[in-house]
Amino acid sequence: MPYDPNLVRPMREELTRIGVKELRTADDVDEVLAASEGTTMVVVNSVCGCAAGNARPAVAIALGHGTVPDRSVTVFAGQDLEAAARAREYFPGFRPSSPSIALLQNSELVFMLERHQIEGRPAEEIARDLTSAFDRYSVGAL
Length: 142
Hints:
Elements: H1 5-16, E1 21-22, H2 26-33, E2 39-45, H3 49-62, E3 67-68, E4 71-76, H4 81-89, E5 100-105, E6 108-113, H5 115-118, H6 123-137, E7 140-141
Parallel strand pairs: 1-4, 2-4
Antiparallel strand pairs: 2-5, 3-7, 5-6
């Protein structure tokens, strides 16, 4: 059963406020990820403390970097169940993990941060991992 929408609203807004687009259905996910050229960051958001204290702040920091993905999107694990499940299909070889942050280039997974790489680490360190991946795989600049 999904989480109460009122409970997750502030957690969603942490990302949408900074320009990360929500994908709420499996069709939304396919529309953005199936045939996307360029780079797309996918944030699998969640209610856990490491999403609040580490993942979402890291995404905000990283999106202030000079090189950023062409698109930044999010699905909410535990809330938008079909969207999260579909997004995870684009991460072959990785078990479901939330929070997690993936970078796709031309619809192919090129970088992944799983929960165990997020949990217990400062947001600034995670942001450095992300910006290194942005520099390596993205061509978009602010």
